[in-house]
Amino acid sequence: MAIEDEVSANSVRVYKSMRDLGFLTEEKMGTAERITQATKLPKNMVLNSLQELLAKGWARRKVREKAAGYYLTK
Questions:
Q1: Using CA atoms, how far apart are residues 54 and 57, in angstroms rounded to an integer?
Q2: H or E element: which one contains 66?
Q3: SS3 helix, strand, coil % of the chain, rounded to 5?
Q4: Is the pTM of this model over 0.90?
Q5: d(CA 74, CA 63)
Q6: Is 61 helix (H, G, I), strand (E, B) or coil?
Q7: 3-36 pLDDT, tens per residue?
């Protein structure tokens, strides 16, 4: 099943930006702030999209000292 069939249009945009930025592993994860800059979406929309991707299993979140990191799993 394609991601377009599972999540909203904003989440697809966030997913594609994360893929293009190379946030594909725990070693190469990015912050919500960086994703917001790349997508040019409001931060609350990016955070909602990240929550949707996390809930559907398309992304993971790792808590760090300053800001949480996100990376794709599929």
A1: 5
A2: none
A3: 55, 10, 30
A4: yes
A5: 20
A6: strand
A7: 999 999 999 999 999 999 999 999 999 999 999 9
User: Taking CA 25 as the corner, what is the angle to CA 41 and CA 18, rounded to the nearest 5 degrees?
Assistant: 15
| Beta-carbon contacts of residue 70 (< 8 Å; ≥ 6 apart) | 18, 23, 29, 30, 31, 32, 35, 50, 59, 60, 61, 62
Task: Give the C-alpha separation, 59 to 70, whole Å.
Answer: 7
The pair of three-digit structure tokens given for residue 43, joined into one six-digit string = 């931060």
User: Tokens at residue 5, please?
Assistant: 């069939």
Beta-carbon-side half-sphere exposure of residue 60 (alpha carbons within 13 Å): 14
Domain segments of the chain: what residues? Answer: 3-72
Phi-psi region of 21 (alpha: psi -120 to 50; beta: other; left: phi over 0): alpha
Return the CATH number of the domain spanning residue range 3-72: 1.10.10.10
